[in-house]
Amino acid sequence: MFSDKYWMNIAIKKAQLGGETYKNPRVGAVIVKNNHLLSIGYHHYFGGDHAEVNAYRNVANKDDLKGATLFVTLEPCSHFGKTPPCSHQIVQWGIKKVIVGQMDPHSLVAGKGINYLLNHGVEVITGVNEATCKNINVSYNYFYTHQRPFITLKMSQTLDGKIALNTTTRDYLTNDKANEDVQNLRAKYQAIVVGAHTAVQDNPRLTVRNQHLSHPAVRVIIAGNTDISAAKHLLEDNAAPTYIFTQSLTVKNMQVASHCRVFYKDSWNLAEIMKVLYQQNIQSVLVEGGSKLHDAFRDANLFDQVIQYIVPQIAGGDSLPAFNSLRHVEKMTHMNVKSVDTVGNAIRIITQRK
């Protein structure tokens, strides 16, 4: 006799196979009857069948669904979107019991799916392997719980915490394998943020170059009063949208390509910018620098995770630190270590707020 946790773990593993689900959560589902597996499904991509429907399609004999049990990592939806409500279809299929990993924090669901099932005679159990299920969709859960994007600060640095020498030449610390990992990291985020200095001096593309994405991350320049006309790749390459947050009338009136969008105010702060990104339905933000911008996010208390690629080099002297400003600091920020791995020539450390 297999336990509910056993079957939910299978659903969790399937959910993690979800590809570019974009603004949808990754979800896995398992259908069981008399302690025997009928089918497995998951949400493959944005706009595709939800996990429950995918599992339904994989059932060889649909009559077997009557009286079966569905295990699903996230509460079944109850609203009409790109697909019909899963909770309604579950009732139609004749499933009599649904085991749910976590409640859906999205206001369109938020218990409504479970209530629909209960009101139509379906037994529901919630909270099975809940913590693990929540970890499948960290950004999605954070976005709908806190009403702002999940924010990660990312940097490559030396052993002594430096990101570059104090020269006009760009320094590349990580090797190809570590850079490949950064590309994969970018693919998981819906916005990539840089400051004006990084946009102009490095002229980055901020794209994912090792895979094709149907919904590439929005590239965000926090420009302040800086002239960003030299950021050619971000302004001219339409491989992804570019948002420009500026306080400059010159930049506001600048002719930009159709993939660019200018947000002008005479004064922006980071909280206001994150609010705009929230209003644009952007659930996750990767801040790639530079050092002053990283420190500004730290000072504004607007970060949830830090990812550092640390290479076995020492810069010393007046080299540029990963966090840089003149503000006086009297209190440390304590982090929880989530993982430590070797990636190429770097040690990748992922920490999250306590």
Explain what the structure shows.
The protein is α/β, with parallel strands linked by helices. It has two domains: 4-137, 3-Layer(aba) Sandwich (Cytidine Deaminase, domain 2), CATH 3.40.140.10; 147-353, Dihydrofolate Reductase, subunit A (3-Layer(aba) Sandwich). The chain contains twelve helices and 16 strands. The strands form three sheets. Strands 11-10-9-8-12-6-13-16-15 form a nine-stranded mixed beta sheet, with helices on both faces. Strand 8 (191-195), helix 8 (196-201) and strand 9 (218-224) form a beta-alpha-beta unit. The longest helix is centred in the N-terminal third of the chain and has 12 residues, at 4-15. It is elongated. The active site is at 52 (proton donor). Residues 2-125 form the CMP/dCMP-type deaminase domain. NADP(+) binds at residues 198, 202, 290-296. Its cofactor is Zn(2+). Pfam families: dCMP_cyt_deam_1, RibD_C.
Protein traits:
354 residues; alpha/beta; Cytidine Deaminase, domain 2; Dihydrofolate Reductase, subunit A; 5-stranded mixed sheet; 12 helices; 16 strands
